[in-house]
């Protein structure tokens, strides 16, 4: 798990151009620095946006924020004069409520699901607005589904794909170690 975390950290450092002369995994031998293909990522399916969302709001896209915590951010366009506070929003991990925050950026509104731990990277988060599901049931957005999208995109940089593969390997290691 620690090796996978160090490899993820090194991939993120390279992608963001941060302290690249002292990569997090530099203390590992060469074979341990190799990021294994993720079985979870290979078997992952894409997330799918629902066709029914309340009037006045439309799904715009999802991004992954990789700062001191892992955050899934869902962007929405709203009709003029509307805000997310005009809607009833719920977020669950499929069973339990999950905390979220809202905000605005570049003329879009967003819902952030933050503090996603290693064991929950493959969790599909159910986002409901006024009782309508944003994503099709069983195809909710997750960090791993976003990573799959990144890896499958022809226009994504090699460095970003490396981060996505490394976070997937980290997820696999966390799940494997939690079962032991």
Q: Reading side by side through the largest sheet, how are the strands ordered?
A: 1-2-5-4
Instruction: Tell me the overall shape.
Output: elongated
On the 0 to 100 scale, the average pLDDT is 92
Biggest sheet features: 4 strands, antiparallel
Order of helices and strands: HHHEEEEEEEHH
Number of strands: 7
Structural class: alpha+beta
* Rg over alpha carbons: 17 Å
Distance between the termini: 12 Å
Helix content: 25-40%
How much beta, percentage-wise? 15-25%
Unreliable segments (pLDDT under 50, ≥5 consecutive)? none
Tally of DSSP helical segments: 5
Report on the structure:
The strands form 2 sheets. Strands 1-2-5-4 form a 4-stranded antiparallel sheet, with no helix packed on it. The chain has a 3-stranded antiparallel sheet with strand order 3-6-7, with no helix packed on it. The protein is elongated. It starts with a helix and ends with a helix. The protein has helices at 2-16, 30-33, 39-43, 143-152, 158-179, and strands at residues 57-66, 70-78, 89-92, 101-105, 108-113, 126-129, 132-133. β1 and β2 (70-78) form a beta hairpin. It is built from 5 helices and 7 strands; from the N terminus they run αααβββββββαα.
């Amino acid at each position: 798990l620690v090796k996978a975390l160090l490899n993820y950290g090194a991939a993120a450092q390279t992608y963001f151009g941060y302290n690249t002369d002292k990569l997090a995994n530099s203390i590992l031998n060469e074979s341990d620095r190799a990021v294994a293909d993720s079985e979870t990522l290979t078997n992952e399916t894409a997330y799918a946006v629902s066709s029914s969302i309340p009037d006045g709001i439309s799904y715009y896209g999802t991004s992954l924020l990789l700062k001191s915590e892992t955050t899934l951010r869902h962007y929405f366009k709203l009709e003029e004069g509307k805000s997310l506070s005009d809607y009833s929003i719920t977020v669950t991990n499929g069973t339990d409520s999950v905390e979220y925050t809202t905000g605005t950026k570049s003329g879009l509104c967003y819902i952030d699901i933050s503090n996603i731990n290693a064991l929950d990277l493959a969790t599909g988060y159910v986002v409901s607005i006024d009782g309508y599901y944003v994503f099709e049931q069983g195809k909710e957005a997750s960090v791993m589904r976003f990573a799959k999208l990144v890896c499958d995109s022809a226009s994504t940089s090699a460095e970003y794909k490396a981060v996505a593969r490394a976070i997937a390997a980290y997820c696999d290691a966390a799940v494997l170690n939690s079962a032991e």
